[in-house]
User: Fold this.
Amino acid sequence: MKQVYELDHWLEGYLDYLDQVRRQSAGTIRDVRCTLRRVCRYMDRRRPGVALWKLALKDYIKWLEDERADGSSSHTLTKFLSHLRGVLDYAWRSGKSDRNVLDGFTLADAGRSPVPTFLTEEEAKRLIEACPSHRPLQRAHRAMILLLYGCGLRSAELCALNAQDVNRERREVFVQRGKGGRQRYVPIPDGAFVELLAYLCERGGKRGALFRTEAKRARISIRYLGRIVQEAAQRAELRKQVTPKVLRHSFATHLMDRGVDLAVISQLMGHRSPTETGVYLHALPDRPRQAIEQLKIANAAKGRRS
Assistant:
């Protein structure tokens, strides 16, 4: 059995700071913890006994080079850098170091985010059609997939939903535990709302977890949800690796393809700013060109009138 690397007390204190002061999500803290374990394990071999905030820039560059050689993508390395900048900045503000050696340091090829995987509208339709609704459990699974695709919810957000978070009058769902502690209301598409309402009536009760496992009647987990999506994709005979995150990407891409404003999509998805949502433009390479062509047409029409 592989032994778990234990972080020192100061780094554990930093993680507590992210949790209690910064109010970062459990997923974010888990990612930061993994990054810290990864770099500490490496530095224990290369620079034993030297704290992270005492390392030189060349030490981190060497680590990044070795991570890239082991197959880490530019996107993953950029995430590592973001995590480490945070802890080094915290060490600097705490007086443990006189500078953050990673401040201002970026990767040369980190300018463009990877294109997210998404389903075409035809594939999304096939996926939903592959979800039967003959039995109560099947109807629950179908409702999960409809909310993932129809509302763009994250896995953790859907798992955390309670029955009382569904507003039947306004036909929307209240996401209480969004990433970074951000809350939001998301309208439910008509087709999904009708099926969700039928599920709620059958479910009974006004409070508690919206979706529960069949065996122990416990709140569903992220792993459980991933398995439901994967099984539906297999029934639909989709060749892509379909996960709940792919359905969230599909939600954003299809809205953008219909010309919905980037700021609106950003709000629906619970992003901090439209900048995060801009990654979906990469999946629609013709969209910027179409926008420019419209501008040219408008200018030409103005010239003719004058």
Remarks:
- The beta strands are 166-167, 172-175, 184-187.
- The mean pLDDT is 86.
- The chain is about 55% helix and 5% strand.
- Residues 17 and 23 are 8 Å apart (CA to CA).
